[in-house]
Write a structure and sequence with these properties.
With about 400 residues, this protein is an alpha/beta fold. It is built from 15 helices and 16 strands.
Amino acid sequence: MNNKAVILGCNYYIGLSTIRCLGVNGVHTVAVDYDEHDRYGAESKYCSERLIAPYYKKDPQGFVQFLIDYAKKQNETPVLIPCHDAYVEIIDEYLDELKDCYLFSQTQKGLATTVMNKETLHSLAVEKGMAVPETVRLNDEDFFEKIDTIIKYPCIVKPTDSPTFVATFRKKLFKVHNQEELKEALQKAASKELEVIVQRIIPGFDDHMYTFDAYLNQDSKVTHWTTAQKHRQYPINFGASVYTEQRYVPELYEIGAKFLEEIGYKGFGEIEFKKDAETGKFYLIEINARITNFNTMLNKVGLNFPYITYRELIGSPLPPKAVKEDKNIVFWYAYEDLLAIRGYIRTGQLTRKQIFLSLFKKKAYAIWDWKDPKPGLIFFKKIARKFLKR
């Protein structure tokens, strides 16, 4: 295994878990970031090289040229693994320039961007017969009437381009309770020139959120997969996983695998679903086209997706595998879960007893690892400084 793994985005625990999943198997890992600040993932003992590249937002061509120049110096073609949505987008945009000097999963230009964009994903899902939340677009006729009769309040205003929206507003969407709040949300998005759509909220608490996590080979066939159930998110109700459990839900394979294979998807992908609390129907919410937040938990249940990716791309694929039983292991991002718990209790969505009883399951931690403590210690110091400043 002489091919290096170039990992984009190591200032967050997704990059850290990817480095660990590869490094523990003897892969030479290269952490690429645009700033030395807070890149605690690159402090892992499994990180072989640490590089600083031009900032992809300010100088995308410079960033891509940096990657190309690095690849040309290597004896074997490196494997490229993005760990943030923005990196997925830039690889997709510059796919033709990068494909000659890197190995990466998605080879159909534009597909990754299509599934990450909420509006184009919605259209694609409808075309393939997937259930999606009812949606109204800003240019629809009788816009407000449709909100009143089809969507109803409360509803959500979602961006079509999530990474830019999150970077701008530090949240994934706006939840609105009446027409006045809706107009205010639309104005906020318009002021930043961000395109949005309005969707119905599928009924059900956060534990009605499920995922289908899979790897599809270069023939667009699912070779490895499992399913999971969210329990808590941050921000609450419309955020990222902070306490998620592997849970075998065969129906999600039937829905998810068929969809991903039909659209020609390749590599790791995660479909987020919400189960309607009233009908039991699963609705497609979004697709993550990069390694997921709870990668450490997936690794603990036997699916090391970064290594599965690496091995297939270098021409030595691992045997197919599916986890078709409940392993009773949860992913836990303790820092944000504590913030989420405060929100759930304040809003009366969970009790202290429910929280307490949930904490006794076997855990896969987002950051902490006894065998690789340095990133966790650095992160703890960062959080401690933040609280001291307050």
